[in-house]
Amino acid sequence: MAAKTSNLYARIEPEVKEQAEKILASLGMTASNAINIFYKQIILNQGLPFEVRLPKNVPVAMAALSEEEINAEIEKGYRDYIEGHTEPAEKAFADIRKEISK
Fold first, then answer.
1. Per-residue b or e along 16-44, where b marks 16 or more CB atoms closer than 10 Å to that residue's CB
2. Rounded CA gap, 56 and 99, in Å?
3. Which of 4, 5, 80, 90 is in the most buried spot, having the most CB atoms within 10 Å?
4. Lowest mean pLDDT among 8-12, 45-49, 54-58, 68-72
């Protein structure tokens, strides 16, 4: 006999739903299967089964800034340079490569 089920209604952005369902289909799963697994993991973990947090360092999207904001960023960078709050380019690139390889 099949287990009882309950309906769940959620609003999802159409493009997010479409992309996720394509991936699930390639895994041989339905959205219902995935949601059921997700809920079981919430129970097992007594919370979300992954860390939810804001990124530590978000790059500045320069193209989205106004001229005034760009000038403020340049001034901030210059102040950091003058105050010695900088690191060698080699270290910065090594850190970036390390993050990308995770």
1. eeeeeeeebeeeeeeeeeeeeeeeeeeee
2. 12
3. 80
4. 54-58
Same domain as 33, residue 67: no
Q: How many domains does the chain have?
A: 2
Residues 39 and 76 in one domain: no
Closest CA to 31 of 4, 50, 3, 12: 12
CB contact at 8 A, 50 and 38: no
Give the model confidence (pLDDT) of 50-72 as tens digits: 988 877 777 778 888 899 999 99
Range of the domain at 1: 1-52
- In terms of pTM, does the model score above 0.70? no
